[in-house]
């Protein structure tokens, strides 16, 4: 028996609509996703918008930054930092946010949904 | 049936007891301060009678009056003590009689009943029975008035004689050398005449006195020892002109200062029949109680344990004892450490413990360097292990470390402690046992200081000072306290870094200066040139604040948008459920009925929870991010602007209604508050700033709980600084008195701008004032006297802020690009966050808690706008 994995890509906005080093929230298959465009590299990252510490949907409104070489976002509620590339909370090893695949197609930002 | 209606006054409070304090010197001040601080229930009304025209001042620092020129600089405390409810100070008021039976004292033409009385009359300067000692030109050295008259005399005589004045000081002790220093500073040729064989015979030995003499003579002061003054003679004008000695020699003297000792001012006690010692001093027990159980005696007028204690330290201890006893305690005065450290004529002199080696078998370890003008001696126990005492002349830097070690093993070769200045004594600081008293003014031990670091979480000297009060009185132990703190921090593995965060190795103040003197106007330039990495939630908002103050850009202009914490980014306050609260500015708390209706209608239309804030304005809670522009469109149209309740910036200027309505108001506090709020609105700063303006001393605006508090007086405005509520509440301290409105505004301009420039991140004005070297006085000098020469610069910086202010919300509403950021979801801009859930409470809604949510969310379906989907 074989298993096929299908990634469904959701187009959420034009890349130009993203302010560098700032996030936006997007709805992907009913999930709330926080999408960030980094300054400099221009990389696009997406993690859960839900802040597991406060229970509020606010991660997209956090400040982008770095710890050592890791790009981070800090929850705007109580300032816990998360690795944007892995979703790992850098202040609490037990907490990880879901990382959503991203890609840029024809100047549009797309978020990968489907099986997680 | 009838029902009795009892009309009663407020519940009966016990009558407040009356305390009379006779004398208003340093010790009396300490007593009132201590009593007010501890008497939380205000059981005592305190009346203080001082015969001098000034409030209590620092008599020990009298000579500094010659440098500072302003006697007010010597005043103790900020003056607010005498404005406390239940405390009165009568200046220039001589108490003529105490009627102990009736418990009444007579002062001028009034009488005052007391429950308890404290004699704190101090001492007189004595004048020896020398013929001519009452001639014009003869002075004592005890009060500010003495010193002021002396100075005037010297200046007048110099003008009249057309040459340098010749001065003579009778007495080569501590006070005599102080006076000699003062005369020398006034330009007089000065001779010190000492009856004993060497100078300062009570503090140092013959060799020490010799060293002291050599240093002083090098400063141009003549010294005569073993000399008795026999006569003073007047010239034709009746003023003193010549001094004659017992050996027949004579010197010219245009001014003579007697500094031969002091005598307790105990005549009031004698006349009232209190027990008085043979050689003077009101006899008191270890509880400072005299032979009358309602009367205490403290300070230099008291004789306890058979002696009069002629230093301010023991007097302070007695004051604390009496404060304790008045509140039912049982504290006692157990003698005092008579160690002294002084700077006389610029020469350090210290003596401590058994300085004269009176202990049997004691050994003396001496280090003397006549060319360097240094004499140091340690007195050790017969086994050379335990420190018994010592004296230091010329270099007393070891005093702070040595004094607490008296009675203890030095733990190493004692000679190590006597090495020339600059060489670190062995094991200083770290070796001190926990029970050693480091700060004798405030009774703080080494252990308590260490504890402040390990248990209280203090990470710097300022924190430890605030926590323990160590080093906050005379300051002589500060270097030792710092050493203890540093050692403890190092042991605890706490690295004391002043770096802002991992991206910048600078403090906020340093970054501020970097931006101020450079052309940098963006965060990316700043971090590229002076930092590393991408920044973080610490340095980005700091950079945003600095750039805002210096470059005045809008919070959402260009790169600025990526620096703002969410509050500043959406210009509203994030709440626990991810929605925001909105606070329109209501300057001075003054709002029209139409304005209230407009705010109310917005709240109704958007279902916002409303609450009046502590800053006299209205907070509207529960606004979703995508609703903020529409809400603000309504508010701006109604004439409101951003209240910056979200920013590290000016919040509000709270005011009372003032003169315009209040029957007690003496100034127009509301107008001033509105003007100030409109002046400083939008000013970004290290932390939030709050101001308050009260129209009279009743202080309804609680101005003394604000960073800058203003209280109206008959003559103008009193300005207070450094107050706050919050985690560690602080009362603001008096900064300047009776300012005109223009003077006040300039002083606030400079104070705030200096704070904005130099404070640390998230440091409010109170801890900032503590961290500034020189504290409140130094900031006052910068602000009022322009001691750093930056006054015009600070004025210009504030003027620039005022000129470039624009309402952030009005500017945002006029800019489509900025408005585009206010969406809930980038692909469903107006869809509310589906997880929000509310319940009603007291007629308004609030976020549902966990249990309530489970009920509300279950089964609820919330429509979501379809999104564009593509399949790969």
From TrEMBL, chain A:
CDD domains: Rieske_NirD (cd03529). One of its GO terms (biological process) is nitrate assimilation. The keyword rRNA-binding does not apply. Keywords: 2Fe-2S, Iron, Iron-sulfur, Metal-binding, Nitrate assimilation, Oxidoreductase. The keyword Iron-sulfur applies. Pfam families: Rieske_2. GO terms for molecular function: 2 iron, 2 sulfur cluster binding; metal ion binding; monooxygenase activity; nitrite reductase [NAD(P)H] activity; oxidoreductase activity, acting on paired donors, with incorporation or reduction of molecular oxygen. InterPro entries: NirD, Rieske-like_NirD, Rieske_2Fe-2S, Rieske_2Fe-2S_sf. Residues 10-111 form the Rieske domain. Gene3D superfamilies: Rieske [2Fe-2S] iron-sulphur domain. Coiled coil: none annotated. NCBIfam families: nirD_assim_sml. This is Nitrite reductase small subunit NirD. It comes from Aeromicrobium fastidiosum. The lineage of its organism: Bacteria, Bacillati, Actinomycetota, Actinomycetes, Propionibacteriales.
UniProtKB/TrEMBL annotation, chain B:
[4Fe-4S] cluster binds at residues 656, 662, 696, 700. Siroheme binds at residue 700. Coiled coil: none annotated. Residues 438-485 form the BFD-like [2Fe-2S]-binding domain. Pfam families: Fer2_BFD, NIR_SIR, NIR_SIR_ferr, Pyr_redox_2, Rubredoxin_C. Pathway: Nitrogen metabolism; nitrate reduction (assimilation). Binds 1 [4Fe-4S] cluster per subunit. Keywords: 2Fe-2S, 4Fe-4S, FAD, Flavoprotein, Heme, Iron, Iron-sulfur, Metal-binding, Nitrate assimilation, Oxidoreductase, Thioether bond. Residues 575-636 form the Nitrite/Sulfite reductase ferredoxin-like domain. The keyword 4Fe-4S applies. Residues 18-302 form the FAD/NAD(P)-binding domain. Residues 339-403 form the NADH-rubredoxin oxidoreductase C-terminal domain. Its EC number is 1.8.7.1. One of its GO terms (molecular function) is nitrite reductase activity. Its cofactor is FAD; [2Fe-2S] cluster; [4Fe-4S] cluster; siroheme. It catalyses: hydrogen sulfide + 6 oxidized [2Fe-2S]-[ferredoxin] + 3 H2O = sulfite + 6 reduced [2Fe-2S]-[ferredoxin] + 7 H(+). It is an enzyme of class 1 (oxidoreductase). InterPro entries: BFD-like_2Fe2S-bd_dom (IPR007419), BFD-like_2Fe2S-bd_dom_sf (IPR041854), FAD/NAD-bd_sf (IPR036188), FAD/NAD-binding_dom (IPR023753), FAD/NAD-linked_Rdtase_dimer_sf (IPR016156), NasD-like (IPR052034), NiRdtase/SiRdtase_haem-b_fer (IPR005117), Nit/Sulf_reduc_fer-like_dom_sf (IPR036136). Belongs to the nitrite and sulfite reductase 4Fe-4S domain family. Catalyzes the reduction of sulfite to sulfide, a step in the biosynthesis of sulfur-containing amino acids and cofactors. This is assimilatory sulfite reductase (ferredoxin). The gene is nirB.
């Amino acid at each position: 028996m074989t298993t096929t994995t299908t990634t469904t890509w959701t187009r959420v906005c034009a890349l130009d609509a993203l302010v560098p080093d700032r996030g936006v929230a997007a709805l992907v298959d009913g999930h709330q996703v926080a999408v960030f465009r980094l300054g400099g590299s221009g990389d696009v990252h997406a993690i859960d918008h839900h802040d597991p510490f406060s229970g509020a949907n606010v991660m997209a409104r956090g400040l982008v930054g770095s710890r050592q070489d890791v790009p981070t976002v800090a929850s705007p509620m109580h300032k816990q930092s998360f690795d944007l590339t892995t979703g790992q909370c850098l202040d609490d090893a037990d907490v990880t946010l879901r990382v959503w695949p991203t890609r840029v197609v024809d100047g549009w930002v797309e978020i990968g949904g489907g099986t997680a | 049936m009838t029902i009795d209606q009892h009309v009663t006054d407020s519940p009966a409070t016990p009558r407040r007891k009356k305390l009379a304090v006779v004398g208003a010197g340093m010790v009396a001040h300490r007593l009132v301060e201590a009593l007010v601080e501890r008497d939380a229930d205000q059981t005592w009304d305190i009346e203080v009678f001082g015969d001098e025209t000034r409030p209590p001042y620092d008599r020990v620092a009298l000579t500094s009056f010659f440098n500072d020129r302003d006697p007010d600089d010597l005043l103790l405390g900020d003056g607010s003590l005498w404005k406390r409810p239940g405390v009165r100070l009568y200046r220039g008021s001589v108490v003529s009689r105490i009627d102990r039976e009736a418990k009444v004292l007579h002062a001028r033409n009034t009488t005052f009943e007391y429950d308890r009385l404290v004699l704190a009359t101090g001492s007189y300067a004595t004048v020896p029975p020398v013929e001519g000692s009452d001639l014009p030109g003869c002075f004592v050295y005890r009060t500010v008035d003495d010193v002021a008259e002396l100075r005037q005399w010297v200046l007048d005589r110099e003008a009249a004689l057309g040459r340098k004045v010749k001065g003579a000081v009778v007495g080569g002790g501590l006070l005599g050398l102080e006076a000699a220093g003062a005369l020398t500073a006034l330009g007089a040729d000065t001779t010190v005449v000492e009856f004993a064989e060497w100078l300062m015979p009570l503090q140092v030995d013959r060799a020490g006195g010799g060293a002291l003499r050599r240093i002083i003579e090098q400063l141009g002061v003549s010294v005569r020892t073993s000399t008795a003054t026999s006569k003073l003679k007047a010239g034709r004008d009746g003023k003193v002109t010549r001094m004659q000695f017992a050996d027949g020699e004579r010197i010219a003297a245009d001014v003579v200062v007697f500094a031969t000792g002091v005598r307790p001012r105990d005549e009031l006690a004698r006349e009232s029949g209190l027990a008085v010692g043979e050689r003077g001093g009101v006899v008191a027990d270890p509880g400072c109680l005299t032979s009358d159980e309602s009367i205490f005696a403290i300070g230099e007028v008291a004789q306890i344990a058979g002696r009069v204690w002629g230093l301010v330290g023991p007097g302070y201890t007695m004051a604390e004892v009496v404060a304790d006893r008045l509140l039912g305690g049982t504290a006692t005065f157990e003698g005092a450490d008579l160690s002294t450290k002084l700077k006389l004529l610029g020469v350090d002199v210290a003596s401590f413990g058994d300085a004269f080696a009176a202990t049997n078998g004691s050994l003396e370890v001496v280090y003397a360097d006549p060319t360097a003008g240094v004499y140091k001696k340690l007195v050790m126990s017969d086994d050379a292990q335990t420190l018994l005492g010592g004296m230091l002349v010329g270099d007393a830097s070891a005093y702070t470390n040595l004094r607490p070690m008296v009675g203890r093993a030095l733990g190493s070769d004692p000679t190590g402690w006597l090495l020339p200045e600059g060489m670190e004594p062995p094991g200083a600081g770290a070796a001190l046992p926990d029970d050693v008293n480091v700060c004798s003014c405030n009774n703080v031990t080494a252990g308590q200081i260490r504890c402040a670091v390990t248990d209280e979480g203090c990470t710097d000297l300022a924190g430890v000072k605030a926590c323990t009060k160590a080093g906050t009185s005379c300051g002589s132990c500060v270097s030792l306290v710092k050493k203890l703190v540093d050692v403890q921090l190092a042991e605890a593995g706490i690295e004391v870094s002043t770096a802002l965060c991992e991206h910048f190795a600078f403090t906020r103040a340093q970054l501020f200066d970097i931006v101020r003197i450079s052309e940098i106007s963006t965060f990316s330039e700043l971090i590229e040139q002076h930092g590393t990495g991408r920044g973080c939630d610490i340095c980005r908002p700091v950079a945003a604040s600095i750039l805002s103050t210096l470059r005045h850009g809008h919070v959402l202009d260009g790169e600025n948008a990526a620096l703002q914490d969410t509050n500043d980014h959406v210009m509203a306050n994030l709440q626990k459920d991810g929605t925001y609260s909105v606070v329109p500015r209501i300057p001075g708390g003054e709002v029209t009925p139409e304005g209230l209706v407009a705010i109310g209608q917005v709240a109704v239309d958007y279902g916002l929870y409303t609450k009046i804030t502590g800053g006299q304005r209205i907070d509207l809670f529960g606004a979703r991010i995508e609703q903020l522009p529409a809400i603000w469109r309504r508010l701006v149209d109604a004439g409101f602007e951003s209240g910056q309740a979200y920013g590290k910036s000016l919040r509000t200027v709270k005011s009372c209604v003032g003169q315009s309505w209040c029957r007690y108001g003496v100034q127009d506090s509301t107008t001033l508050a509105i003007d100030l709020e409109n002046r400083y609105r939008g000013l970004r700063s290290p932390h939030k700033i709050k101001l308050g303006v009260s129209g009279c001393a009743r202080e309804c605006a609680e101005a003394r709980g604000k960073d800058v508090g203003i209280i109206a007086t008959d003559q103008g405005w009193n300005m207070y600084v450094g107050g706050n509520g919050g985690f560690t509440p602080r009362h603001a301290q008096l900064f300047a008195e009776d300012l005109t409105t223009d003077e006040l505004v300039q002083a606030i301009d400079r104070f705030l701008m200096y704070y904005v420039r130099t404070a640390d991140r998230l440091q409010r004005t109170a801890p900032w004032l503590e961290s500034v070297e020189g504290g409140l006085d130094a900031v006052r000098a910068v602000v009022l006297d322009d001691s750093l020469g930056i006054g015009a610069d600070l004025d210009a910086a504030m003027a620039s802020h005022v000129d470039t202010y624009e309402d952030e919300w009005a500017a945002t509403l006029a800019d489509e690009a900025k408005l585009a950021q206010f969406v809930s979801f980038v692909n469903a801009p107006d869809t509310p966050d589906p997880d929000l859930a509310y319940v009603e409470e007291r007629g308004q809604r609030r976020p549902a808690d966990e249990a309530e949510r489970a009920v509300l969310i279950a089964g609820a379906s919330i429509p979501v706008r379809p999104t564009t989907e593509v399949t790969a």
